[in-house]
Design goal:
Elements lengths: L5 E2 L2 H13 L14 H4 L6 E8 L5 E8 L17 E8 L8 E7 L9 E6 L2 E7 L4 E2 L5 E8 L6 H7 L15 E2 L5 E10 L9 E10 L4 E5 L4 H5 L7 H8 L10 H12 L4 H8 L4 E4 L16 H9 L28
Parallel strand pairs: 1-10
Antiparallel strand pairs: 2-3, 3-11, 4-5, 4-12, 5-6, 6-7, 8-9, 9-11, 12-13, 12-14
Helix pairs in contact: 6-7
Length: 342
């Protein structure tokens, strides 16, 4: 560990997350937690993070999709999935930022114990049924589960406010008061493992993103790489850009000006080659090579320090770390996430 961490109080965690939702941080906030008012008001539709990495042995790909930021701790985030929300993991296999493969989860209403039945579909074909908190095998190979887990995201928000925003809070990065504001928080997570042959085989270049949609197919939230919406669509106290971004599918993001806006923000932040970096970040699709165990920017592993990587990228190395390490007791085997906090 780089430094000792203090557990933030429940009140300070909630305050920090509300700051994220209000868009007061112009460089980095949560990965995708509480990124716009609409999804912030319904935690079950609010994507927190998306992870894509090579499974043990290298012959399978693992997807992890989180929702319900601060599950059970914030008033709008419960501990179950929405029964009127579709959860989709989308895969592009030919580089056109359009989904060639769609894994869609539907959840039923929770019973008295909070357990939900779910079904999983791939491109309209049924793959599995199951119950939250238990493993289910997929037709044709693979495995899935869903339930409440520790939030693997980690970030020192107070230090960011002091070092970057100029808040008079006595904090800076890597000082003695380093705090992970996400320590002790939970999310509702879907974990899916599929054979690489179902994605085109080992060495296949794919693009991945996730979305939540209502019963009529209206997109509520979407995410590829971490922090894109919270960083680059951040007009102070005006969340219209974030709302539009959440509702815009990757294939239409360039035409609607999001790449140009990202380039403007990168230029203001002093990034090297803003145009080139913007062309990588928009469309907002996480790129991954199946069978490749490297981490971010090749997909994203659960313990990857994406905040450090992105701080360095957007500031051209002026800021390289927030000195917060992964705090989750992650596993190298299924289901990889740490258990929920008691």
């Amino acid at each position: 560990m780089r430094s000792s961490r203090k557990r933030a109080s429940a009140a300070s965690i909630a305050s920090a997350l509300m700051i994220l939702s209000l868009g007061l941080t112009p460089v980095v906030s949560g990965a995708d937690h509480l990124d716009s008012p609409v999804v912030s008001g319904k935690g079950a539709a609010d994507i927190t993070d998306l992870y894509v990495f090579s499974g043990p042995g290298g012959n399978g790909t693992v997807f992890v999709l989180g929702v319900n930021p601060g599950a059970g701790a914030l008033p709008n985030s419960g501990t179950t999935f929405g029964s009127k929300i579709d959860y989709l993991i989308k895969v592009d296999t030919d580089g056109d930022a359009k989904a060639d493969i769609k894994y869609k989860y539907n959840f039923g209403k929770p019973n008295s114990m909070g357990v939900q039945q779910f079904d999983l579909w791939r491109n309209g074909a049924w793959l599995a049924s199951g119950l939250t908190g238990a493993d289910s095998m997929l037709l044709g190979g693979g495995k899935t589960t869903a339930g409440l887990y520790d939030d693997p995201f980690f970030f020192d928000l107070d230090a960011f406010k002091g070092a970057v925003l100029g808040a008079d809070n006595g904090r800076t990065f890597c000082d003695s008061g380093t705090v992970d504001f996400f320590l002790g928080l939970d999310i509702s997570a879907i974990v899916l493992r599929v054979p690489n042959e179902s994605l085109g085989g080992n060495g296949q270049a794919i693009g991945v993103w996730a979305s939540t949609e209502n019963a009529s197919g209206t997109q509520l939230d979407q995410m590829g790489r971490p922090a894109i919406n919270t960083v680059f669509n951040n007009a102070e106290m005006d969340q219209s850009d974030r709302e539009q971004f959440n509702r815009t599918r990757p294939g239409k993001q360039v035409a609607r000006g999001f790449r140009d806006h990202t380039e403007e923000v990168l230029t203001a932040l002093g990034a090297a080659d803003p145009a080139g970096l913007a062309s990588v970040l928009i469309p907002d699709v996480m790129t991954f090579e199946t069978g490749n165990s490297d981490g971010f920017l090749n997909g994203r592993r659960l313990a990857d320090d994406v905040i450090d990587a992105e701080l360095g990228l957007v500031t051209d190395g002026a800021i390289t770390t927030d000195c917060v390490d992964n705090d989750s007791d992650l596993s190298s085997s299924w289901p990889f996430l740490a258990p929920a906090n008691s």
